[in-house]
Amino acid sequence: MSDLINERLRQTVAAAYTNAPAIRARFDAAGVRPEHIQSVDDLAHIPILPKDDIIALQQANPPFGGLLGVPLDQVRHIFFSPGPIYEPDAGDDSTPLEMAKLTLQRAGFQPGDIVLNTMSYHLVPAGWLVDHGLTATGCTAIPGGTGNTELQLKLMRDLRVNGYTGTPSFLLGLIEKAEELGLDFKNDFYLKKAAVMAEPLLPRQRQLLTQSYGLSICNAYATAEFGILALNLDGSLPMQLLPEPVIQVADPASGQTTPPGEVGEVVITNLNPAYPLIRLGLGDLAVNVDPNPGRSKQDERAIILVGRRGEAVKVRGMFVHPNQLRLALGQVAPVQAFQGIVTRPENRDHFTLRVALAGETADPAALVQPFKESVRRICRVRLDEVVFVEAIPAEAPGMVDAREWV
């Protein structure tokens, strides 16, 4: 990280310790003083704060759980996330707006574009944040929000909208509705570019949008607390990190940064003295992609999102998420369903994969070694056994921890 980021981090930590009681209590419990945090590398001394803990903090000490670093009368907006979690904005942290602007510029948005913003403007910060990013870029923003598809289609045609921001599913819903009305979306509309966020962009969705409708697509990873964190422009798995806030991929147990190629939890520290969120664990698991470990800048690194922490199981020290298994198996053969099971005979983890193949396969045994090699390459864990079964219930978890620790 740059000297400027480290200086801002020191200022944020010092102010948070002084003004936010919940931050001070966390530091004291961990035996950490503000002077111990001189750079981003020192953040590993601070335990990760699970996002769910904010709910408990706010319930015990409403409204902001002792995390607010300024007097309440300085708060200019209060947003809401499910939980409920209340998120104050004192108007003094420009980072989310700057990162929104940077994302949109990288996505190809430019002055003169007319953009339909379908992110929600209701209670959550998404619509407001993207709107500011668009206008700061020089675009004309239409605050569409969600719903009213026929009206939004009329707006798109009448106003010659050439840009879209929102979820991929709502964009596809607009296209589907247009075609139900007998319109040719590619030729009757003017849309050329889209920045999608707030939900996963599936490969088949991206392929449809780019190949069938000729759109350029930016896929952004964002949260309500921090705004946009990373983006992808080419449809590959890695999402390039933005320069701020501080983004780490860490082992949830030790708090240490995971080595490149390994899975950890996405952990964020903002540089906002008014509402300091220091080492907040988002619950998202990601592969740490670092081309130059120890020397690369944050925006030279990337993450590959693999799922939520609660769905992953640690096998021989490595988190394995069902999405990783799905990717690994799909590169070998069509699979109807699968389930990874971890047991612990004789004090070592035994990793078994149950697989229900899609369709007839002449020799399933011939797939065992390719499956093992693909799982080892993508999940970085060795499979001990592959078992083929007729079916696996749809509600069955993708990973099962069947170890007995007594």
- Share of residues in helices: 25-40%
**N-end to C-end Cα span:** 44 Å
The fraction of residues assigned to DSSP E strands is 25-35%
User: Which residues sit in consecutive blocks of at least 5 with pLDDT less than 50?
Assistant: none
Looking at the structure, the CATH topology of the largest domain is: Rossmann fold
The major β-sheet equals: 12 strands, mixed
The domain tally reads 3
What's the helix count?
11
Structural class: alpha/beta
* Gross geometry: globular
The CATH level-2 architecture of the largest domain is identified as: 3-Layer(aba) Sandwich
CATH superfamily of the largest domain: ANL, N-terminal domain
Can you tag this structure with a few keywords?
11 helices; GMP Synthetase, Chain A, domain 3; Rossmann fold; alpha/beta; 12-stranded mixed β-sheet; 406 residues
Polypeptide structure, described:
The chain has helices at residues 3-19, 21-30, 51-60, 95-106, 126-137, 149-158, 168-180, 185-188, 203-212, 322-330, 368-379; strands spanning 49-50, 77-81, 85-89, 114-117, 140-143, 163-166, 193-196, 216-223, 227-232, 239-241, 246-250, 263-269, 280-289, 302-308, 313-315, 318-320, 335-343, 350-357, 385-388, 399-401. By secondary structure, it is an alpha/beta fold. It has three domains: 3-92 and 238-310, Rossmann fold, CATH 3.40.50; 95-232, Rossmann fold, CATH 3.40.50.12780; 312-401, 2-Layer Sandwich (GMP Synthetase, Chain A, domain 3). The strands form four sheets. Strands 1, 4, 5, 6, 7, 8, 9, 10, 11, 12, 13 and 14 form a twelve-stranded mixed β-sheet that branches. It is globular.
